[in-house]
TrEMBL record:
This is Chaperone protein DnaJ. One of its GO terms (biological process) is response to heat. The J domain is necessary and sufficient to stimulate DnaK ATPase activity. Zinc center 1 plays an important role in the autonomous, DnaK-independent chaperone activity of DnaJ. Zinc center 2 is essential for interaction with DnaK and for DnaJ activity. Residues 134-216 form the CR-type domain. It comes from Sulfobacillus acidophilus. Keywords: Chaperone, Cytoplasm, DNA replication, Metal-binding, Repeat, Stress response, Zinc, Zinc-finger. Homodimer. Belongs to the DnaJ family. The gene is dnaJ. Its cofactor is Zn(2+). The lineage of its organism: Bacteria, Bacillati, Bacillota, Clostridia, Eubacteriales.
Amino acid sequence: MAKRDYYEVLGVSRGASADEIKRAFRKLAAKYHPDANPGDHQAEERFKEINEAYQVLSDPEKRARYDQFGQAGADGFAGAGAADFGFGGFTNGFGDIFDMFFGGSGGQTRRNGPERGPDLRYDLTVTLEEVATGTEKDIKIVREETCSRCHGNQAEPGTRIETCPDCRGRGEVERISESFLGRVRRIEPCPRCRGTGRLIPHTCKACAGHGVVRAEKRLTVKVPPGVDETTRLRVQGEGAAGRRGGGPGDLIVFIHVAKHDRLRREGDDLWLDLPIGFAQAALGTELVVEGLGGQRETVHIPPGTEIGTVLRVPKAGLPRLGSSARGNLNVRVVVSVPTHLTPKEREILRTWAQVRGEEVLPEDKGLLRKMKDALGR
């Protein structure tokens, strides 16, 4: 059975931040945890599904692969933790469950440690000609960059950063509560320092204590030949700035291909409609067609060619991404029927119909011709 979309499973959008994904996971895991639903097989399966989705979407690399390849990319790293139910199987995300129900850290990184910056998305449209040859595109993005004044530590230069007295710099405090599980010890982010373990009496004036500032960045993206609407290009280190010494995220470029005025694309193949005359279809001919980028190709049309016939020009299509292979140019024959005929053309066609034994409508002579016939002139 096909698996549900991981974003749908967690109830978040595709542009959700790491914190939004984590909050959604915690809420759903608490609701469907087996200890909270003893004997409920449906809750158990839902809990496994939630954990599997979180394993992928909480990891930046796995999430990028899932965004690019969908479930086909996820199958390679979902692992036993998503398929086999049991505490030993949850290799990623179990720490969050452990935190909620048993109070341990579960090996998760504290909020006062380095945090990698989020990935950014950029939508880039290319032409079919650029798909054929590859190209380089100059783009402009607006992103968060590390503040040059405080170098990301959030404090005004020359001032002190104090250790939070409530959590003693750990960024976490302990809470004891009673629940259906009995007495539960919970480890929560310290509310005073917001989980950072630090207090900053004098925040940086340039970034208002955020450690990052919004800035415009121009860069060049290399687009290889053969890209299509499913292509995602990763530009490492060009995403948003990290926090507390963490590295920047990546820039994920989503490719879109503009429609062509004459050609249409199917995979690596190109398709072209070629209008020809009735006589050309019946007697055969050779015509020159214009392919992609003005490339001229000669197409042989054999006698008796019927409407809809497809004539193939090998290797005149698009290159395959990451390969030396190339698609074909497929020329579909369209027989044009003239709508306005000269008297000579009508005479020839009536003679043709007579020879072929084909019935056609009688000739409409028009009012003037009819009057002359009536007068015997």
